[in-house]
Amino acid sequence: LGPRFLAGGDYNAEHTMWGSRLCNPRGRNLLQTINNNNFQCLSTGEPTYWPTDPQKVPDLLDFFVTKGVSQTYTKIESSLDLSSDHSPLIVTISSSPIIVEPPPRLSSKFTNWNLFRKTVNECLTLKVPLKTEEDIEEAVELFNNTIQTCAWQASPNPPMEAVNQINYPLHIKKKIAEKRRLRRIWQNSRNRQDKTNFNRAAQDLKRILFRFNNDRFNTFTSNLSPSEDTNYSLWKITKPLVQPRVPVPP
Q: β-pairing, 62-67 with 89-93?
């Protein structure tokens, strides 16, 4: 299939690695092939097979096997438009990283609880008749809408945080790749010598990363300055340390 491919379908191979309920021999063999060839599996984690027999339980049998395709640029979802007993899967491949939006929340660490209480007291109406089922349903809906609206008004959008990604040099990246390769070998063989090789590579990488991070921190702190030439970098880095922490109610 070449160095880069995406192959999907009904593999009829069950394994918890891609979201199935159980593991069968075909799933174990496929997982071993994926690990030995440095492949990746891409699935929704949800059932894709819906048996007509009520005695059978839905399970995940459809997924993708990929190589050379970063999952940061892919998005997979199920399609429920067809009437087949297998849910079709739709994979979107983007030219840029796909940002997954977090689920909406009523509150956050930036919520102004004093404003929330004030807004609730102003908007909530307690003089509501509760004589019929319709009155109760309308009162519950009004209460929920009031709580949601007040919580969203008191919770500003959090500021975007810059991702501080470390660009490791080439020799460290090779050490990381070597440690991952030895870990896969040990996980497949469970051999004592393979475990020793993996531990030795992990300890070696740990020492190299410690020296690299220590030198990086020393370089960073030595360049801090309270002057305008460095845009007051010393004050900016110490400002969060002296600010009081605001308690977040449960």
A: unpaired
Tokens (6 digits) for 123:
């908007």
SS3 109: coil
Contacting residues for 116 by C-beta, under 8 A, at least 6 apart: 150, 151, 153, 154
Residue burial 50-86, b: 16+ Cβ < 10 Å; e: rest: eeeeeeeeebbbbbbbbbebeeeebebeeeeeeeeee
Of 55-59, 101-105, 108-112, 162-166, the least confident: 162-166
Most confident of 10-24, 82-96, 102-116: 10-24
Collapsing DSSP states into helix, strand and coil, what is residue 249? Answer: coil
Whether residue 1 contacts residue 38, with contact meaning beta carbons closer than 8 Å, is answered with no
For 5-93, the fitting CATH number among 3.60.10.10, 2.115.10.20, 2.60.120.330, 3.30.420.100 is 3.60.10.10
- Give this prediction's pTM: 0.46
pLDDT band at 250 (very low <50, low <70, confident <90, very high): very low
Report how far Cα 180 is from the mean position of its chain's Cα atoms.
Answer: 21
Q: How far is CA 16 from CA 23, 24, 59, 72, 213, in A?
A: 6, 10, 11, 22, 36
